[in-house]
Design goal:
single chain, mainly alpha, globular
Length: 483
């Protein structure tokens, strides 16, 4: 990692919007020690707490998943500071900014394990450097297509939704965006700053003239192509014997405190992103703060158990803002907790009837998880519609418009990664035809703006039909009301 990066790592990031994360076919096994574990506790139905059947202490461990959620958070936090550094006199050569972002994507504990992480909270985090969270974990190895043993499609050929000949897989899309940011950083340092539709210089290297916010696209896509993909298409899937929820429950895995089935379920929970006592938190705490020293109060925030990441935050925000009440986070949390308790109650392999019970919990989780993403896409359709309604007024802000459209696109791209999606392949392609590859800008003709608004309303209706959303939660034709 460049020395300059090490010197400037003191950044913060608000968890979502989250703005902000295989049974044991997982090549790095994620067989991590659970340092915060409830060592002497029995199963507690109010918290994600389960004692080992084989040894003293907890059977819960998902450190690798928390580490990857942290790496996504920190990559975006780092990117947020790049423009200020350049405007303050940094002249990066080609490849430097890309290398700094790849530090997170291709994370190497040998060179980065002792680097302080960038997550800030009050009280401070219990873990101070990356190796305190987990070691030997990266993002690139877990993006859809690269951990392919249990994937329902070949993501090297099946990736859709972003039209660029350079994009052949989820990994190639991430690298494309990183390269675009790097090129924009070099150009900005040389005084070549593109202008927005208002004629003003673009305020950040991750904004494009066409209205794409590459920071938001990166964050939301990584949460989908890693956390959602791994959670639904690996750890909770049942299409391959010995993996996911078909993993063994008879004996500990490689001398660990858990069975393969327990571990698969826990790792999916880690990617959902809820704190261990998530059910006791208010929607506001999950949505606006994202952490609380309540699971094992010790005057510090444990990044492995007391932080909410990714979709667990999206679900709370949509429940909080719904006009007709929704219970997305309650449903997913309850199914994770009850499903894990059910696994713990079975001393041995599950029979066919027990597998069907577990599938019921799984189905609730993956449906609620995806609905949280789809409802958040609806939310950003509405934000984008409101931005367009402000064209030509002092209320319009190009950067906000780019941000909102890009969050919509990033969440919508994520919907392809679940093998259990209610959204058909044809409807997914139609959805992205309607959203497009960039937002319509205020320089467009009135007819084109009206057509783009109609497309967004059709996209919103398509999502509502696929996921059964109440019409009251969709908002009106101008994006007001609803989510």
């Amino acid at each position: 990692m460049p020395l300059l990066v090490l010197a400037l790592l003191a950044c913060s990031k608000d968890p979502e919007d989250t703005s902000l994360t295989p049974a044991d076919t997982d090549t790095d096994t994620d067989a991590d020690s659970d340092a915060d574990a409830d060592a002497d506790s029995d199963t507690d139905t109010d918290t994600y707490t389960f004692a080992s059947r084989f040894t003293d202490g907890s059977s819960v461990a998902y450190d690798g998943q928390s580490m990857r959620m942290l790496l996504i958070n920190d990559m975006i936090a780092w990117l947020d500071g790049v423009t200020t550094r350049i405007d303050s006199g940094l002249y990066p050569p080609a490849g430097q900014i890309a290398g700094e972002l790849l530090f997170y994507f291709e994370f190497d504990s040998a060179s980065g394990g002792a680097v302080p992480h960038a997550y800030t909270c009050d009280p401070a985090a219990e873990q101070t450097v990356y190796d305190d969270v987990a070691s030997d974990k990266d993002l690139v190895g877990k993006i859809a297509g690269n951990d392919a043993s249990t994937m329902h499609v070949d993501w090297s050929t099946a990736m859709v939704g972003w039209d660029d000949p350079a994009v052949t897989s989820p990994e190639s899309l991430v690298r494309l965006w990183i390269d675009q940011i790097d090129a924009a950083a070099v150009a900005r340092a040389n005084g070549d700053i593109p202008l927005g539709p208002d004629g003003a210089p673009l305020p950040a290297v991750y904004l494009t003239e066409s209205g794409q916010d590459l920071s938001q696209l990166l964050e939301k896509f990584l949460l989908g192509a890693i956390a959602f993909s791994q959670g639904t298409d690996d750890y909770l899937d049942d299409d391959l014997d010995g993996t996911g929820i078909l993993s063994s429950n008879a004996a500990p895995t490689d001398g660990s405190a858990y069975t393969g089935l327990e571990h698969a379920w826990d790792e999916a929970f880690g990617y959902w992103g809820g704190a261990r006592d998530y059910g006791a938190w208010s929607d506001d705490t999950v949505s606006d703060v994202g952490y609380a020293d309540t699971y094992d109060p010790n005057g510090a925030i444990d990044l492995l158990s007391e932080v909410c990441w990714g979709a667990s935050v999206n679900a709370a925000k949509r429940d909080r803002d719904a006009v007709v009440a929704t219970t997305l986070r309650e449903d997913v949390w309850g199914a994770f907790l009850d499903g894990r308790a059910y696994i713990a109650s079975i001393d041995g392999e599950l029979d066919a009837a027990q597998q069907d019970v577990l599938r019921g919990y799984r189905d609730t989780i993956v449906r609620g998880w995806e609905e949280a993403l789809a409802a958040t896409a609806v939310h950003y359709v509405n934000d984008t519609l409101r931005d367009m309604s402000a064209f030509g007024t002092e209320d319009y802000a190009f950067a906000d418009h780019a941000k909102h459209w890009s969050e919509l696109k990033g969440f919508a791209l994520s919907l392809q990664f679940s093998p259990h999606s209610p959204l058909s392949d044809a409807d997914f392609l139609r959805l992205h035809d309607l959203i497009g590859q960039a937002p319509i800008l205020e320089t467009a003709s009135a007819a084109d703006v009206d057509a783009a608004k109609a497309d967004l309303l059709e996209a919103r209706a398509l999502l509502a039909t696929a996921y059964g959303f109440d019409p009251a939660n969709l908002g009106d034709d101008d994006g007001n009301g609803g989510w």
